[in-house]
Design the sequence.
C-alpha cells in the first residue's frame, strides 16, 4: 500500500541538505567586511579591527592607508577579532582608510577612519594646554597662517573656544553660546543665557557645559543647543568647567567649587574657599586642583571634595593649574609662577615677574609657558624655574591675560595689544602675528591645523592639505616581514 508519509522522508532529507549546502555557499561567498573599534581619533590612535567573510585559515594584512601594520590569521569560519592597527603620528586631519586584505589575492574590505584631535575644554584633557597631536602647523609654515573665517555677530569674546567632532563652541559676551561649523564658521545653533558668558565651555559625551554671569551653569545638547539642565549657584560663574568621570567641576564667584552630575546637574559636593573661585579646575588622578582669590591653591579629593592640601601664595589666584609629572604649575597676583608637589603641595620653586600672573600656564617638552601683566610672555625650565626666554608684546603698556597654547613647537597667545602671536617654543622668536584691532583676552586653541581665537579661525592657504585617497586593493603591498599576531585570530562573538 502506498505510504506518502514514508516517501516524503528522503525528499525532506534531500531538501534539508540542499538548503544547508546553499546556506554554506552563501556564507562562503559573502563579501568580506570589517568593523573598527572606533571611527575617529587623533594621530597615534589604536584601532581594533575585526572581520568576517574572509577565507578560512588564511593570512590577512591590516593596512592604515597604504602602510601594512599587522598580519592576522583567520579562523575556520573566515573570521578574526581585534587586530591592532594605529593611526600614524604623521596622519593628517581628515578621512583615512583601514583595509583588511587577504594575502596573495585581492579579496578584502575597507572602512574609513577620521583623523581629528579635539580640544574640548580649557586645559585639554591632559591638563597642560598642549596639543601633542598637531602635525600640520609647525615653525616652518606657521608664517603662512591666514584668516580662515570669523563670525562677526558675536562681538567681544573673552573665553576660549573649544572644538569637538567638527564643531567649534564659543561662549560670548553677547549672552550666547554658539555652535559653529569648524570648516566654514557657519552658525549651527545658539543658546541665549540670562547674561554674558565670560569663560569657555566644555564638551563631553554630546553635552556642552557653560557657566554664565546669570549664576547658572547650563548643560546643552551639543547637536541642537537645547537646554538639558541648569544649576544655579549663589552668584555668577567666571570659571571654565572641566568634565571627568561623568562629573562637572566648576568654580563660582560665590566662593565655592562645585562638583555636579554631568547627566543631571545634581550636586555631588561643594567646597567653600575663602573668596571667589575664578580659576578653572584641573582634574588629575582623582584630585581636583584649583586656585581661589583668597590667595590659596587647593587640592581636593575629586570623589568627595575633601581637602588634601592647600598652599598660600601672596596674592589672588586667578590662574588655572597645569598639572604634569607630579607637579602643579600655577600663577598668582603676587607675581610668582609656582611649581608645587602635586601630592603634598610643598613648593618646588617659584619664578618672579614684575606684574601679576592671571594667565594659566602651558607645559610642553619640560618647558612652562605663561603670560604676565608686565606685557611679557615667558618660558621657564619646568624642573628648575630658570628663565629660558621672554617676549614683550608689540605695544608697551598692554597687559596679557590670555593663556598660551602649545602645539608642534609653536606657542600661541593673544594680548590686549590687539595681536594674536605665534612664537617659536624653543627660542621665543616671533614667527607670525595677526592684528585683531581690538583687545584680545580669549585664549587660543590649536587643533587639526587650525588656530581658534575668540570667534576667529586661522589656517594655512587652501591646497596645503590633501585628503587621503581610498587605496585600490590591487595596489596594496603586504609587508612580508610581518609575523602573525599572537595568540592569533579568535572567533567573533555573535
Sequence:
Amino acid at each position: 500500500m502506498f505510504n506518502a508519509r514514508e516517501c516524503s522522508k528522503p525528499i525532506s532529507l534531500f531538501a534539508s541538505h540542499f538548503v544547508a549546502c546553499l546556506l554554506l555557499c552563501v556564507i562562503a561567498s559573502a563579501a568580506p567586511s570589517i568593523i573598527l573599534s572606533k571611527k575617529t581619533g587623533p594621530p597615534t590612535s589604536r584601532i581594533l579591527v575585526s572581520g568576517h567573510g574572509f577565507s578560512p585559515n588564511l593570512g590577512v594584512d591590516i593596512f592604515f592607508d597604504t602602510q601594512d601594520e599587522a598580519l592576522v590569521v583567520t579562523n575556520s569560519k573566515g573570521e578574526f577579532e581585534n587586530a591592532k592597527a594605529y593611526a600614524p603620528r604623521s596622519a593628517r586631519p581628515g578621512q583615512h582608510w583601514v583595509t583588511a586584505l587577504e594575502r596573495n589575492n585581492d579579496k578584502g574590505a575597507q572602512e574609513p577612519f577620521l583623523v581629528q584631535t579635539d580640544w574640548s575644554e580649557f586645559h585639554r584633557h591632559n591638563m597642560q594646554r598642549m596639543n601633542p597631536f598637531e602635525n600640520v602647523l609647525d615653525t616652518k609654515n606657521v608664517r603662512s597662517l591666514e584668516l580662515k573665517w570669523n563670525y562677526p555677530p558675536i562681538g567681544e569674546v573673552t573665553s576660549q573656544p573649544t572644538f569637538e567632532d567638527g564643531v567649534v563652541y564659543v561662549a560670548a559676551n553677547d549672552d550666547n553660546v554658539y555652535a559653529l561649523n569648524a570648516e566654514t564658521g557657519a552658525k549651527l545653533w545658539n543658546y541665549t543665557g540670562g547674561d554674558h558668558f565670560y569663560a569657555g565651555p566644555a564638551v563631553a559625551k554630546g553635552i556642552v557645559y557653560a557657566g554664565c554671569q546669570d549664576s547658572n551653569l547650563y548643560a546643552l545638547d551639543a547637536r541642537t543647543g537645547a537646554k538639558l539642565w541648569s544649576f544655579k549657584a549663589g552668584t555668577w560663574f567666571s570659571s571654565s568647567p572641566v568634565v571627568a568621570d561623568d562629573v562637572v567641576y566648576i568654580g563660582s564667584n560665590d566662593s565655592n567649587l562645585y562638583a555636579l552630575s554631568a547627566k543631571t546637574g545634581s550636586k555631588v559636593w561643594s567646597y567653600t574657599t575663602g573668596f571667589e573661585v575664578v580659576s578653572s579646575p584641573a582634574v588629575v588622578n582623582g584630585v581636583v586642583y584649583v586656585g581661589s582669590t583668597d590667595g590659596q591653591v587647593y587640592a581636593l579629593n575629586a570623589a568627595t571634595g575633601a581637602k588634601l592640601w592647600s598652599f598660600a601664595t601672596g596674592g589672588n589666584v586667578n590662574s588655572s593649574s597645569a598639572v604634569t609629572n607630579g607637579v602643579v604649575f600655577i600663577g598668582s597676583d603676587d607675581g610668582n609662577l609656582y611649581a608645587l608637589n602635586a601630592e603634598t603641595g610643598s613648593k618646588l620653586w617659584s619664578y618672579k615677574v614684575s606684574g601679576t600672573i592671571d594667565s594659566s600656564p602651558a607645559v610642553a617638552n619640560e618647558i612652562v609657558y605663561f603670560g604676565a601683566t608686565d606685557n611679557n610672555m615667558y618660558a621657564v625650565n619646568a624642573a628648575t624655574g630658570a628663565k629660558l626666554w621672554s617676549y614683550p608684546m608689540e605695544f608697551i603698556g598692554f597687559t596679557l591675560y590670555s593663556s598660551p597654547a602649545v602645539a608642534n613647537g609653536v606657542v600661541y597667545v593673544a594680548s590686549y595689544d590687539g595681536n594674536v602671536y605665534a612664537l617659536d617654543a624653543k627660542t621665543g622668536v616671533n614667527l607670525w602675528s595677526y592684528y585683531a584691532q581690538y583687545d584680545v583676552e580669549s585664549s587660543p586653541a590649536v587643533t587639526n591645523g587650525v588656530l581658534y581665537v575668540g570667534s576667529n579661525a586661522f589656517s594655512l592657504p587652501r591646497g596645503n592639505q590633501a585628503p587621503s585617497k581610498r587605496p585600490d586593493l590591487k595596489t596594496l603591498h603586504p609587508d612580508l616581514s610581518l609575523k602573525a599576531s599572537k595568540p592569533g585570530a579568535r572567533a567573533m562573538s555573535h
Q: What stands out?
A: The longest strand covers residues 94-102.
